Amino acid sequence: MLRMGKLTDYGIVLMSYLASKTYQKHSAHTLSEAVSMPLPTVRKVLKALSQSGLLRSERGAQGGYNLSRSPKQISVAEIIAAIEGPIALTECVSNESQCENEPHCSIQTNWTQINNAVFHALDEVKLSDMLAPQLPKDGVSPIHFYPSAKLHNGDIHG
Hints:
Elements: H1 6-20, H2 28-35, H3 39-51, E1 55-58, E2 64-67, H4 76-84, H5 108-124, H6 127-130, E3 150-152, E4 155-157
Helix pairs in contact: 1-3, 1-4, 2-3
């Protein structure tokens, strides 16, 4: 099963909240209350997002966190990478690969193509897209999916 960790999910929730309220700075405490998440978890996620350059943080009474760029310029892939590290579906597509089969693996190129496709799909989805309602008025979703495959009970059918 391919699944993001909870911290990554929390990161996307926090970034989406910040994207919906770009006009102000937010403390970790107010963010924790706003998204109903434990304060230590919020602090951990905010630290990772700040270190990756997705958030700006300022100390002091007038300080807080806010996005470093417009929500239209931040991709979901960037948020995932900030918390999980580089997107790599298998070890052989990672920069830190230690696979002993790599020198004679016949499918490594295919895994690289699959990894690139997943990365580009996630990179196309912007933080601003995450703010859109699930059923837009005009019937067109801002997030474009590939409709040929459907997921049912964890299995792909299509």
